[in-house]
Design a protein that fits this description.
By secondary structure, this protein is of the alpha/beta class. It has nine helices and eight strands. Helix content is 36%, strand content 15%. It has an eight-stranded parallel β-sheet, covered by helices on one side. Bound molecules: 2-phosphoglycolic acid (PGA).
Length: 229
């Protein structure tokens, strides 16, 4: 299983250092085949050592240049960052990232060999129209994406399940992941209110290769409870 923690706009450099210390201590009990990723805010990025990979939640598709407020490859290379989240629904919705821009980003980081966790997910009104509508919607989020790229995985995150405490049901996750597996031959993570109470059932679904966790990753103990469950 893959366990990825997305801090979003939480934690400081100082609290991230403490978190990583606690995480490292707990990860000595991790199963060898499990993989852990942490996505701290950009201000907390550094060379952290441990049995996990540090990635960034975002970057701009540029080496360096005039894009006020963004970071590019030059800034990521300073910390040897080679892993990035692309297409998170918060960026699509709050920051108006279009499919065209998201796919441009995907291709830029693909060309530089980055490991990409590519996020997709439907809003509630689409889920309410049924599984067929969901898959049609999700398919559009692969427009412009090279699904043959060998260094990426998908994170399926229904928007209505993110940060709401209401995760998708085992049946919904199973059906959607199975449909996605017919289209894409890459690991597929589930995200959306993953927590201690549901990690056992979610991780036992065959087509779930891992989880992308927001809220329950913010505290090292609760994240470790998921990783070590
Ligand atoms: P959540 O967030 O676990 O807080 O629902 C998941 C995500 O946005 O990746």
């Amino acid at each position: 299983m893959i366990y990825a923690g997305n801090f979003k706009t939480n934690h400081t450099r100082s609290s991230t250092i403490d978190y990583i210390k606690e995480l490292n201590f707990g990860l000595k009990d991790k199963k060898a085949e499990d993989k852990v990723y942490i996505f701290p805010p950009l201000t907390a990025i550094d060379f952290y050592r441990g049995n996990f990979t540090i990635g960034v939640q975002n970057a701009y598709p540029i080496e360096s240049g005039a894009v006020t407020g963004e970071v590019g490859i030059e800034q990521l290379e300073e910390f040897n960052i080679k892993t990035i989240l692309i297409g998170h629904s918060e960026r699509r919705e709050l920051l108006n990232e279009t499919q065209e821009f998201v796919s441009k980003k995907f291709n830029f980081f693909k060309e530089r060999g980055f490991e990409i966790i590519y996020c997709i997910g439907e809003p509630l009104e689409v889920r309410e129209r049924g599984e067929k509508a969901v898959i049609e919607y999700l398919k559009e989020q692969f427009i412009g994406i090279d699904i043959d790229y060998s260094n990426f995985m998908v994170a399926y995150e229904p928007i209505w399940a993110i940060g709401t405490g209401r995760s998708a049901t085992v049946e919904e996750i199973t059906t959607t992941h199975n449909e996605l597996k017919k289209l894409i031959n890459r690991p597929i993570l589930y995200g959306g209110s993953v927590k201690k109470a549901n990690i056992a059932e979610i991780s036992s679904i065959d087509s779930v290769d891992g989880v992308l966790v927001g809220g329950a990753s913010l505290n090292s103990d609760s994240f470790l409870e998921l990783v070590l469950h």
